[in-house]
Amino acid sequence: MSNRTDGDLRDAGAWLAGHGLGDVEPTPLLAARLAVRRRARLAGSILLAVFLCAVALAYVSSLPDGAGRGPLLALTSAVVALVLGQSLLDRWVRRADRRAAATLPRRAAHPVRLGWRTLLGPPRAALALITYAGAAAMAVRGLVEPDAGTRFAAVVLLIGLAGVAAAAAVQLRHILTHPTVADDEASLTADVILRVEDAREVATPTAVWSLPVVSVFATAPGWWVAAWMVFIVATVAALVVVNARTAGSGTVARHATNAG
């Protein structure tokens, strides 16, 4: 346990240095918060990978004609499991933050309310919305195709998108509403950095890009595959531009904590 604690403290020190807070001493509180987030992200990645496998299985199980409701019911159950699993992971992180907050002699408050504009920024939020909406529109377009297999793939995509969107909404709600865990300016800045990085990770639509890859690319009509490829490349390029033009999480945090 001691070795793991020492390792967490070293990781916290490296994290602080990487965010321009190298002069701040890492604390067990910050180390614990970072450690639980690393584990929750790993578990979340595994959960998402299992869900994508479920999407792929739902698609291939009804090839070549796309008939049968069984795979769709199973996929709907996987959506419920994904949202529930993500809720439990978020509750785990929230519980760890509450335990950490309970050890503080006093609680600091952010000088301004940390809404989505601060944590995400309008460009990143707009890109996420456009990506989800564009993917949904692409899937709906597949519903009007005469080929039953294409229509089935479109339904699979829509169910998968609904699951991914619901899981992201659960995560964002947690990030926007959970209480501050800080007792001084340095820990307040670190708290904002954690929130910004959590929000930006959730808003990155990696799962949306992955859904057509694990389902429709194998047997979908050529025009649909080409359209998906253009869509994915365009939104990835847009994200690169947004990342390049957006201030880092440390800069956002210092601006937010000095706003009062």
Characterization of this structure:
The protein has 260 residues and is mainly α. The chain has one domain (2-257). It is built from 10 helices and no strands. It has helices spanning 2-18, 28-60, 70-102, 116-119, 122-143, 148-177, 185-203, 206-214, 222-245, 249-257. It starts with a helix and ends with a helix.
Summarize the model shown.
The chain is 77% helix and 0% strand.
What general outline do the C-alpha atoms trace? Answer: elongated
- Could you spell the SSE succession in H and E letters? HHHHHHHHHH
The radius of gyration is 21 Å
Measure the end-to-end span.
40 Å
Tally of DSSP β-strands:
0
Largest sheet: none
Number of helices: 10
Number of domains: 1
Topology:
Elements: H1 2-18, H2 28-60, H3 70-102, H4 116-119, H5 122-143, H6 148-177, H7 185-203, H8 206-214, H9 222-245, H10 249-257
